[in-house]
Amino acid sequence: MGVVSPPAGDVDYARYGIGYAGHRRADPRIAARILEALGTASTVLNVGAGAGSYEPDDRAVVSVEPSEAMIAQRPTTPRRVVRAVAGSLPLPDRAVDASMATVTVHQWPDPLAGLREMRRVTAGPVVVLTFDPDCLDRLWLAEYAPDVYRAEVARYPTVDALVAALGGDAVVDPVPVPFDCTDGFTEAFYGRPEAFCDPGVRRSQSAWSFVDPVVEAGYAADLRRDLDSGRWDERYGHLRTEATFDGALRLVVSR
Fold first, then answer.
1. What are the domain boundaries of the chain?
2. Hey, which end of the chain has fewer CB within 10 Å, N or C?
């Protein structure tokens, strides 16, 4: 096994987050779904905000992020950034109109506690962009990098658990991933496999930090070999012409 031992959520972004913002840019089609779910909220809390992806430009946003390395990659704006963790939000009950968390809950030490906190401090919709761990094997990368797949499955809360933590009345919708998705999570490259040969792309996907570097290099070499030989295209080449990918990405909205 090549998986190393840090617990879920324990990612050293001072080490692994270099260049993160350059690879993890908000995709406008996904952003539109999030903006629609936020509704008419004028104040928005972004939990696990990272470098600020998907934060709406036309609202008052308060961002919560514990990593100094990620805060340093945020664009220069007057927005307030609070260094805190999701499980203990320093806000009173119903302090904001809406809250959001985008591809981050799997990195929290206690994802369910963090979701309950989001529901507590939010008067209106809580919007969570996440991945369904039961569907992560839809992406071919699960075969080429099984330790990455296992790390991801272990980290993501199930959709049922997530909905329960938000009060049980949340709506869960699949989000098709566009072929040219600009947010560089793993499914973004479903039809662009060469991207995984780039160490910078892998460094912007936190699951790789749970894999031994020697094992990681082996996975990249195996993929490169199959790309050069044409074997990948024989098996998965049809994905190069698919406009979207129906994978594990989900938008969960609790109103």
1. 13-254
2. N
Instruction: Let me know the angle formed at the C-alpha of 103 by 159 and 172, rounded to the nearest 5 degrees.
Output: 35
Structure tokens at 244: 């979207």
Please report, as a single letter, which amino acid is at residue 218: G
Alpha-helical (H) ranges within the chain are 13-16, 20-23, 28-38, 68-71, 111-121, 141-144, 146-155, 159-165, 199-203, 213-229, 231-236
One-letter amino acid for residue 216 of the chain: E
Amino acid at 224: R
Distance CA 160, CA 145 (A): 26
CATH number of 13-254: 3.40.50.150
d(CA 235, CA 135): 19
Element at 173 (helix H, strand E): strand 171-174
For the chain, 255 residues long, give each residue's pLDDT as a single digit of tens.
Answer: 454 433 334 555 555 556 555 667 899 999 999 999 999 999 999 998 887 889 998 899 999 988 777 777 777 666 678 888 898 999 999 999 999 999 999 989 899 999 999 999 999 999 999 999 999 999 999 999 999 999 999 999 999 999 999 998 899 999 999 999 999 999 999 999 999 999 999 988 989 999 999 999 999 999 999 999 999 999 999 999 999 999 999 999 998
Three-state secondary structure call for residue 121: helix
